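pipeline: protein-struct stage 2 | run 1193 | NADPH:quinone reductase and related Zn-dependent oxidoreductases
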Amino acid sequence: MHAITVDEPGGVDVMSWAEVPIPDPGPGEVLVRTQAAGVNRGDVLQRQGHYPPPAGITDIMGMEALGVIEKLGDGVEGHQVGEQVLALVSGGAYAEFFVVPAGQLLKLPAGIDPLAAAGLVEVAATVVSNFDRVHLSAGETVLIHGGAGGIGTLAIQYAKALGAHVIVTAGSAKKLAYCRKLGADEGFDYHDDWEPQVMMATQDRGVDVILDIVGAKYLEANVRCLADDGRLVIIGMQKGTKGTLNIAVLLNKRGTVTATSLRFRSLASKAAICRRVEEAIWPLLSSGAIKPGNQTQVPMAHASKAHELLESGDNTGKIILVV
């Protein structure tokens, strides 16, 4: 088979469409013939050498995919060869075949283009698990950073479906308009001083929940923007890993700061999240309450172009590699 390989960490020029052995599924795993794979920020970080896969996982990039089951490993039940599935994987999706634990397979959402769904697995798992973690509820206000990206576009719609008031940050007027089209109530350009605008929009109350992909750069401002009993969940570190925190501000707000990673969870945890996605997100997709959002398709052999586009910041929605 062919796969996107990386000889050494670096820019997009280190990526090659090369021939590698087809993996063999172990007990409890399945081999899937890839039809499409989603492109995520974690893939870019891995290519750059900042986000290595968990121990024992292939160094081929790719954490979500659509495909057809080619072979069942020992002990796999409830699936069959020839079945079209979605998959949440820890790596390996940038290839013509990949192996995945059977618990991390997902059924396709009814009535949705399978290619559109291929780019929703990772973001849906990230959004639902983190909003569950901080207990986002109807009537609360949530601030979503990077609202026009893959995670942001789904987070906006899921938060609205939960009955929340949604504020976003994004990098341009065009992206903010896109976020509003998806249901965001208010939006601010992150190139400006967004903190006072958020506080003004909430009459200085602050927000109940913040979903943050940025990391260290926003830590202090995020905490200042929390309402009493507010919860900040950090899911990315695009702008640094080390920040300062005024404990007194957090203490006075009775605030919570938490951080999560999906990729390094246990198999049981990932399987449970996949079931939660099928339960909470897929029906909203099928009903039209959540729409897949913009999608850019790139041939998998040209994955370097997809990475260039993601890093440029010009894209809205999700980028999909198609075999």
